[in-house]
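STRUCTURE:
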């Protein structure tokens, strides 16, 4: 297999507070390959957004990356200077956030947004930048793109604005796009269209895609592989088809049982009892053990590591042949 576009190894993020050292991410490792969508799923507070922010070096101080490596096309990017990272952002890594309005300036036309970004990253002249802006808008499904260049963000619907943000993220043909809850602010019917768009762009441009969402159903429909996060750790990772058919971690099993469309018997639709721990109260042993029906003494005292055959790996003493972390 070709080298991954993004490779994250043993990533650790810490938030020092006056009393405590909170560990936001602990030993997070994964790869994303060209043309692949890797979904990140987990309940609120799992560490999904921190993972994306760490890759972009956008963990606000005093939070910091305290260990591990992040490589883009083989090159370390976790220790770059501010200007070094500015060259990567937008040009090599595009970003899409939940609310398109945070990425758009209300006083600038869509044409100015696109041509400015294209100009900065690709150094094209006005005419060529405008042509590229029109073809990008067309590609993301904005009707009459040449006319719409003169429109302002508020003159578009929420779904159209998110399409425009996706066009902006793709301006410079980045190798990686990080999308953090890109459809959460949109109507359900529009969500499916945006997801189909992301999938198509990923296939046609060969972009690697990091899709962050709390919606396991969306992952099942969109992603090639999935990383299930819990309390700042990846607890299961593998191909979506494998994991949806044979989830190994009890937490993943709970997430999948809660997808309405995959559940034949609505009566069985269930939530996982309990709540994700806060960073100041991470339990010993397996972080999931207080909510786990299978937990035994080993789970309460020893932390399981990701283990398993091939590319499906699970951190669970009970359902995977895990080695024991010291
Ligand atoms: N700057 C910070 N200082 C301290 N704790 C933080 C900081 N930023 C995030 N956290 C904590 O880290 C944990 C993970 O946060 P993160 O935003 O990554 O969650 P998430 O998985 O994206 O959740 P959501 O689905 O709600 O967006 C949470 O417990 C959060 O409170
Ligand atoms: Mg988040």
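SEQUENCE:
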């Amino acid at each position: 297999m070709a080298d991954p576009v993004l490779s994250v190894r043993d990533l650790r993020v810490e938030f020092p507070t006056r009393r405590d050292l909170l560990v936001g991410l602990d030993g997070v490792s994964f790869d994303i390959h060209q043309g692949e969508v890797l979904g990140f799923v987990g309940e609120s507070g799992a560490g999904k957004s921190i993972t994306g922010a760490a890759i972009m070096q956008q963990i606000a101080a005093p939070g910091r990356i305290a260990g591990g490596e992040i490589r883009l096309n083989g090159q370390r990017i976790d220790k770059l200077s501010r200007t070094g990272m500015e060259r990567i952002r937008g040009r090599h890594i595009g970003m899409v956030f939940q609310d398109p309005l945070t990425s758009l300036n209300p006083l600038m036309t869509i044409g100015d947004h696109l041509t400015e970004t294209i100009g900065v990253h690709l150094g094209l002249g006005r005419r060529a930048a405008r042509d590229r802006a029109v073809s990008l808008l067309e590609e993301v499904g904005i009707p009459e793109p040449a006319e719409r260049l003169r429109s302002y963000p508020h003159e578009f619907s929420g779904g159209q604005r998110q399409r425009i943000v996706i066009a902006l993220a793709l301006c410079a043909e980045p190798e990686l796009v990080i999308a953090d809850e890109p459809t959460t602010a949109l109507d359900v019917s529009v969500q499916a269209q945006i997801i189909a768009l992301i999938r198509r762009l990923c296939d046609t441009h060969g972009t690697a895609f990091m899709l962050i969402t709390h919606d396991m159903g969306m992952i099942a429909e969109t992603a090639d592989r999935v990383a299930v996060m819990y309390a700042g750790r990846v607890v299961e990772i593998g191909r979506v088809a494998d994991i949806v058919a044979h989830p190994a971690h009890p937490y993943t099993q709970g997430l999948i049982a809660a997808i309405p469309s995959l559940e034949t018997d609505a009566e069985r639709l269930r939530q996982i009892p309990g709540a994700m721990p806060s960073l100041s109260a991470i339990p010993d042993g397996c972080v999931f053990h207080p909510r786990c029906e299978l937990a035994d003494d080993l789970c309460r005292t020893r932390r399981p590591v990701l283990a398993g055959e091939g590319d499906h790996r699970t951190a669970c003493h009970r359902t995977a042949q895990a080695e024991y972390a010291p």
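REMARK: Residues 173 and 243 are 31 Å apart (CA to CA).
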